Give the backbone structure.
Amino acid sequence: MDRNAPERADLVIRNARLIDGTGAPSMRGDLAVTGDRITAMGDLSRTRGAAEVDADGRAVSPGFIDSHTHDDRALLADPLMRCKISQGVTTVIAGNCGVSLAPLVTDRRPPPPLDLVAAEPGQFFADFRDYLGALDRDPPALNAICQVGHSSLRVGAMDSLDRPATAAEIRLMRGRLEKALEAGACGLSTGLFYRPANAAPTEEIVELARALAPAGAIHTTHMRDETDHVADSLEETFAIGKAAGVRVVISHHKCAGKQNFGRSRETLAMIGRARAEQPIGLDAYPYVAGSTVLDPERFMGASRVLITWSEAHPDAAGRDLADIAAEWGCDWAEAAARLRPAGAIYFMMDEADVRRILAYPHTMIGSDGLPHDTHPHPRLWGTFPRVLGHYVREVGLFSLEEAVRRMTGLTAGQFGLKDRGVLRPGAYADLVLFDPGRIADRSTFEQPMTPAAGIDLVMVNGRAVWRDGTATGERPGRAIRLQELARPSSAPA
Ligand code: ZN
């Protein structure tokens, strides 16, 4: 019995397997919540809760932090965010791969891949402060921290994107970035692979990233190449981090294309060597297929391509590109050109690489889900339960405690989230109650929008947002500002 335990709490969860998010062994005990915080843990038999839940041995962990999302507009358009809260996600990091809703003024449909997040000019915000203000006024069910996208900056500052930015354009972009950081943006993302940013030389990114270190912000990158030149892209990423003196996160790390299968041995060794000299993080999703816009010239060595949406042929969503091409009597490139603007799923990775990257001790779990797709990649609804069900329970890739750490404490540390990603008195009550024996992803490539099994209760800032298979309708999420984050240390690791 804990003599320091409070007499009363808003909620007591009893008989839980408490997994604290640090990777430490779980402990049997109770947990109390009052207001938006955890107030006590341990033997709370003397504490009376206004509400009580018997976990009956099920697990309670910190709410999962989705380290890599494109939820920027979904947070406003679909604030209940069922695709994420149904997985136990309580905080998302938005603005990835160079794409953000702000700051950008445009009078036309933005180029791909910006249209994955917003296709109408009116859906963008000129001022990052207004974007965060919109989230404050009409809050989502979960918390968010949001980055500025380099491609969004380029679209707003340049008349043509197929060249390096001029010194004047870099000054304009950097001024807008600095203003967004002041408003609370947490970092700068790039999508150097994509056409709007592909012509940007390394020095352009370094010039912009130099604004990050003084503000205590982070840099994330969808690298220039994840196929044959993945090693060169890692070197470029390390060089940008070093030159700008900033923490870098490598987004959705992969080695794509059959000829690159097995190269995660080489890439993880490179990351390991670089980590000894500078702060570098990485994230990954637990699937051998990726998803992005459909580009007739870039299939990234995929063995199979599934259409996720098409403006020209909406009925193609969910169909195989090979079948469509056969039906139309043309090749993949011609079919893709006719389907555009469109998105697709690409089967392009090796299961052994996926496992090796997931098992690397510094890899965070990030869904990279695309919430506006008609027939999305199943990662949008399945990433976190797939790691806990398939990769922990069925494959035995790592322990449950270690898996939870990669979705909570590790991620909170990388992004500087204070008092989140951990179970301890005083921390925010972002919580998941789940059954380790039953948790499973149920979203598939055929039926991608199916909620997971085994997630019984999800709380954000002390309020239940998901209970027994449905959203409660509560929207206690917060748009967390850079100024509320811990400054990332510039030391290695
Ligand atoms: Zn990306």
